[in-house]
Amino acid sequence: EYIAIGSIAAHFMPFAIDELAIFSGRLTANRIGQLAMGDLEQATAVCAKVHPRSVSAHDYIDSNDPTCGLQRAIDDAGPAGGPVVIPAGRYMLRQPLQLSSGITLQGEGGQVVLTAYQPDTSPLAAHCNEGATTVRVEDPAVFSVADAIIIRSDAKLNAAATHTTIVAIEGNTLQLSRPLSRSYKTFNGAMAVRWYPLINALHRHHIHLRDLCFEGHPTALDDINDPIMLSCAAIHLIDCVDCSISRCRISGWAHDGIGIHGGARIRIDDCSVLDCLGHGIRLDSQTQLLQLQGN
Fold first, then answer.
1. Helix, strand, or coil (residue 188)
2. 173-176 and 82-86: which strand pairing?
């Protein structure tokens, strides 16, 4: 479980909590009134400073891991974030890298290539309801455990699609890592699609990407013939603030190269996007204080 305090709107700045009281039981109306008047026992103050930590991903590389070990390197940077340096090489990812606040993802010498598995698709074999954690597909052979996938239908494109991960396969049934966000009907073209961003961040701040190359498979989608359903930019930032993308190269991606949705104070400089099926850089109208230079 978690506690959400304050707004998560992108124009708000990160803030620190000076004092917080957590109660293990239900409070009576009388006690709530006392607390509102400031009747709160003083607790011993504990100050725990957290500093950014530099991580070399070289120590985490594992070709058998869905993210080649890069996600573990990012996670080990800790709550304060810090630079994560990826050694030169080519990394085939089966899931997007999920970035936390404060992370700087740095490619070594501009020789780091991140790429996705070839996209593939299978129609659903049966209707599935909102909240379900399994789906039945007509062709389970195109998927593997740990694949990141999208569940969608013609009637529920883009934001109404469910982004999830396969945790198990039994026969033609896929066990999913998260419940479906909508119901999907076979007569509306419901299907499972193996496709995903390579970089994903939601409601984060101070994320920086440096000297990275991203490669996709645009021709592999010819049979699907519906790139709109694959709303997964190679770099996908949603409601993020104080972030930058520098000296990154994206080629052959099956949708947008860089997708910025909402957020504020985003800088993109000296980046190139070639031979993609969507926009090079997609910006929505809610993004504020964006800087573009030398792209």
1. helix
2. unpaired
Phi then psi for 29, rounded to 5 degrees? -60, -40
Six token digits for residue 230: 């694959």
- d(C-alpha 89, C-alpha 284), whole Å: 33
Strand-pair category, 235-238 with 199-202: parallel
- Coil/strand/helix, residue 108: helix
Residue 56 near residue 85, CB atoms below 8 Å: yes
Q: How far apart are CA 254 and CA 231, in angstroms?
A: 9
- Contact indicator for 194, 137 with CB cutoff of 8 Å: no
State the average pLDDT over residues 7-11.
48
Radius of gyration of the chain (CA): 22
* pTM of the predicted protein model: 0.80
Q: Which residue has the tokens 């709303």?
A: 231
135-144: pLDDT as tens digits: 999 999 999 9
- What is the C-alpha separation between 61 and 56, in angstroms, rounded? 10
